Amino acid sequence: MNTKKFDTLFIINTNSENKMTNESQPQIKGKFTTCKLIKREDLTHDLIKFWLEPEESFTFKPGQYCTIGTGGLERPYSIVSSPDEKNIELFIEVVPPPDGNLTPLLHELSIGSEMTLRPRGKGIFVLQPQFKNHIFVGTVTGVVPYVSMLRKFLSDTSWPDPEKMENLKREDYQFHVLEGASYVDEFGYDEELTKLSSEHDFIHFYPSISRPDESKNSDWNGAKGRINNLVEDYISKLGIDPKETCVYACGHPQMIEDVEKRYSNTDFTFLEERFWKDDE
Question: For residue range 224-233, what is the model confidence (pLDDT) as tens digits?
Answer without folding.
Answer: 999 999 999 9
